[in-house]
Amino acid sequence: MSAYSPSASVPFPGTGQPTYLELFPSGEVPQTFFTYRWWEDEATTVFWAFDPHEIKRVIRFGLFRDSNLPRKSLQKRDPQAITAFLYSLVEPHETAFIDNLSHYQKVEEIIRRCQISGPPLEPWSWLPTKRDSDMPSIAIAEAIDTESHLHFTRISFEELVRYFLGYRAHSVEWFLQQHTALYIHLLNYLQMFPEELGKYKEVEQHLQTRSPFAHRAVNRCLHALRQPVSASTPYPGFQFIAAPIQQLFKEHLPSLKAILLELSVLGVRFTRTYVHAREMNWTKPFSVEIPLLDELDLTNPAPALDFAKTTTALDEEYFSGLSQKSFVEPDAIIKRLLVLWELRSLEVWECCTGLPDMIGYIQEIVEALYTYRNYHSFTAILSGLYKYSTSNPTFTHTDSATNRMTLTPVLPPALACLLDPTENFVAYRQEFQTSPGLPFLFPHIREYQQHGPPALHQLFQQLQRQVPTN
């Protein structure tokens, strides 16, 4: 794969124009090859089929060589269809603005609203100074790593995906250029203050487990000054995230619709994992596994009741080994059930955030799980819906005098109340007593902690009653 790599040759102030080492000749991306870019043909098909949701995702990720493809395709569409498409992208108070636009302007507005605009790019701002001479070397390494992380957060997920597939991406190019700037800043500084070489050899060692881009800059700088340091890692700096993304395009061949659904959710995970993280993990592979999406198969979704039936059968297998001893001394079975519950809740939040048009389907699934008395998966998915509604709130004023607000419910109150934690989920526990099924474990664990073995006897007596699965 060929990817643009910025030159490390940067003009130096003063006399002459010295050249510098090329720090990132490979673009820091694993070399992978596709026989042809099948997704580009699929993108053209999406514009022809004219599904607004799919078109939005195709424009967002821009997986095509001709940047005018969306423009040329949309301009050929019926003006009424373009107007309806644009109406679906705007808020109600913006409709008057739309009515005054020409067909060409509406197309441009659609493209603008579907594209992702990342944060502004900033120049490298950490600079070595003599006043930092007394700082511990690890503190300097942490400061450099923090700066590198900051610049990484300026790259949108969409730009990274494009770059990993061989397209040019300005924000990624800028990111690499800024680490070249670090190399030049440090090279000039150490030439001026060679007594600092010992400290920066220690900094280089600390950076070996931090930003590979910053480490490459410091390591190459010390090599240029003929310092005895080991060679930097041969692995591409973007290995931790590029390899999983590239693999997706090999596994999903040839379904652009499926992969864009997955990428939309992974964009949410990317932000949570890297942008909102206090510290960056530059080596742990980016997780691209989304079991919920695989189970839902949104390219050909099954009826909600069928999904609930399949999920309940699987959950029953997980619960089959559960015993009272699992509560007394938590074993692998109960630990796994609790972890799966939390992961499913988080997956639902990610999916709703990345694909809000699927919320209605998820709500149907929750209601179907309730009919099967699968409180385990029911509450996990409901919890994810609550996370989404809290992070993306639609508030309803209930008391103007006290200025108190409540969230618009994501489900009918009769079901939503089962996740109310008041009095250790009293509404759920009452429901479970009258209509037992696969339990929501957290309240039962608390019951055991508060009341001892009698709470477990009651739980397992209820579990022995038949769970409706048909």
Automatic annotation (TrEMBL):
InterPro entries, A to Z: Ras_GEF_dom_sf, RASGEF_cat_dom, RASGEF_cat_dom_sf
GO terms of molecular function: guanyl-nucleotide exchange factor activity
SUPFAM superfamilies, per the entry: Ras GEF (SSF48366)
Source superkingdom: Eukaryota
Ranges for domain Ras-GEF: 358-444
Signal peptide start-end: none
Gene Ontology biological process terms in this record: small GTPase-mediated signal transduction
Protein known as: Ras-GEF domain-containing protein
Lineage, highest ranks first: Eukaryota, Fungi, Dikarya, Ascomycota, Pezizomycotina
